[in-house]
Design goal:
By secondary structure, the protein is α+β, with helices and mostly antiparallel strands. Among the domains are: about 190 residues, L,D-transpeptidase catalytic domain-like, CATH 2.40.440.10; about 120 residues, no CATH class. About 40% of the residues lie in helices and about 15% in strands. The protein contains 19 helices and 15 strands. Strands 2-3-4-12-10-9-5-13 form an eight-stranded mixed beta barrel. A hairpin with a 5-residue loop joins strand 14 and strand 15. The longest helix has 18 residues. The protein is globular. The two termini are about 50 Å apart.
Length: about 500
């Protein structure tokens, strides 16, 4: 099933890349997305655009109506130049063309292919397929469409006045009687959690606890049914801020290939989850420990190429000098007790039960030196906040993932267990590398528009909002309006 390898340190491949050339399926998605950039399209870009025909205006106006400031009446009054600008602005938004992610932050190396949007519009008109082009702009992934529904729902909440924040107060739990309980019940009801009234208004009853539990589970909080400081703080995030959070996650969705490969592994840094997809459907999901705010896990695309059983840990120099060697200086037996040794002058932890990588490691090309692996520290998976590592991604179910990845080439769960039990460091190459996307979601939604939120542990939502505002003069004003940047074009 695999080849033995020496436990000596494996030299990292030198690859200075910002975005990765992926497997054929992934590359095909990018090529398909850029197919409209033909020589004829480029020619169309330099020709003076003809006035929109009445039929073209009839296609464009409905597509823009619910994302325009001022509504259909204002749109109908626009001249051709104004209508064209509005359409191009929306198209650039839906195609993820407003910013280049890696220009904003070097840790954001997922980026969409460059699109000649104006040339595409001109060519679509020449070919008589304007409606089809408009309909193709927004991502078609059901999860993006669900976020779009949530965006509309929260825009309506903002337009209706949002919700009132709770005043400062103590901890509230089931059985308490408190003047704040009616305010809490009303606040939760505004976002769809429970009813707004109760027979005993000031009593924290079982129904209110159920509503609090629902709110906590959808906001990345410990689901204990108690309104403590963290839950109170989440309740006091405004409807406008939640709407913006949804919009920023929609922006990150626009950076991904369209469509995503049917077989892939996704790691969600924000949600701290990993999911393996086959035929476009999830077949394995698990919790993940990701980098802490000082050692952030990057957003990037790559591919899992091999599985290493019973891996040695080649300790990064920064960890060795800042953490392990100072401990060894204070405790002479520390290195030996924890199976550390020096190989060619580098600190290495031998394979075994104490190894920080556990018994399975998944190797992949990465300019950031991060990868996926097992861990001996299983208790971390019981925590709600799992941003705890130095940047690598620790998996809750590495054995199950290894078995599924090897299944396509005749491997099985029994083979995985046998390789681990042998105790020897062995590498198995995947016959077909599996595309990997490491993404950052702080908002997700169900098909009915019911949203879930997670803390912005890296501050990347705020950074993205600033970049969009700087790139688009209208973006700063748009972020304060509830009726922009939600609706997918062509619906």
């Amino acid at each position: 099933m695999s080849d033995p390898i020496s436990p000596r340190p494996v030299r990292r491949r030198a690859q200075a890349l910002l975005s990765w050339p992926l497997a054929a399926a992934m590359t095909a998605a990018l090529v398909g997305a850029a197919a409209a950039q033909t020589p004829s399209a480029k020619t169309a870009a330099v020709q003076a655009p003809a006035p929109f025909t009445p039929a073209e205006r009839a296609v464009i106006l409905p597509a823009l109506a619910d994302c325009a400031d001022g509504g259909a009446e204002r749109l109908g009054a626009l001249d051709d130049a104004g209508l064209r600008d509005a359409l191009l602005r929306k198209a650039r938004t839906e195609l993820g063309q407003r910013i280049r992610p890696s220009d904003v932050d070097g840790m954001w190396s997922i980026r969409p292919p460059v699109r000649a949007v104006e040339a595409e519009l001109n060519q679509a008109r020449l070919d008589g397929r304007l409606a089809a082009w408009i309909a193709s702009l927004a991502p078609k992934d059901p999860r993006y469409q669900a976020l779009d529904s949530a965006c509309r729902r929260y825009a309506e909440l903002v337009a209706a006045g949002g919700w009132e924040p709770l005043p400062p107060g103590g901890v509230l739990r089931q059985g308490d009687t408190d003047p704040q309980v009616p305010l809490l019940r009303l606040r939760l009801a505004r976002e769809g959690f429970g009813g707004a009234t109760a027979p005993e208004p000031e009593l924290f009853d079982a129904d209110l606890q159920t509503a609090v539990l629902g709110f906590q589970s959808r906001h990345g909080l410990e689901p204990d049914g108690v309104v403590g400081p963290r839950t109170r703080a989440a309740l006091n995030v405004t409807a406008q801020a939640r709407l913006q959070q949804i919009r920023l996650n929609m922006e990150r969705w626009r950076w991904l290939p369209r469509p995503l490969p049917a077989e892939r592994l996704e790691v969600d840094i924000g949600g701290q989850l990993a999911t393996l997809f086959r035929a476009g459907a999830p077949v394995l999901a698990m919790k993940v420990v990701v980098g802490d705010p000082e050692h952030r896990t990057p957003m990037f695309a790559s591919q899992v190429e091999s599985i290493l059983f019973n891996p040695p840990w080649n300790v990064p120099t920064s960890i060795a000098t800042k953490e392990i060697l100072p401990k060894a200086a204070r405790d002479r037996g520390y290195l030996a007790r924890n199976d550390f040794t020096f190989v060619d002058g580098r600190l290495v932890q031998k394979p075994g039960p104490k190894n920080a990588l556990g018994v399975v490691k998944f190797d992949l090309p990465s300019p950031f030196g991060v990868y996926l692996h097992d861990t001996p520290g299983k208790t971390a998976f019981s925590r709600t906040d799992r941003a705890l590592s130095h940047g690598c991604m620790r998996l809750e179910k590495p054995r199950e993932l290894a078995a599924l990845l090897l299944e396509r080439q005749g491997g099985s769960a029994a083979d995985v267990e046998a390789a681990i039990a042998a105790g020897e460091t062995r590498r198995t190459h995947l016959a077909t590398p599996v595309p990997l996307y490491v993404v950052y979601w702080t908002a997700a939604a169900e098909a009915d528009g019911q949203a879930s939120f997670r803390p912005d542990v890296y501050g990347w939502d705020a950074k993205l909002a600033q970049a969009l505002a700087a790139a688009d003069p209208e973006q700063r004003a748009a972020l304060s309006r509830p009726d922009t940047d939600c609706a997918s074009l062509g619906e």
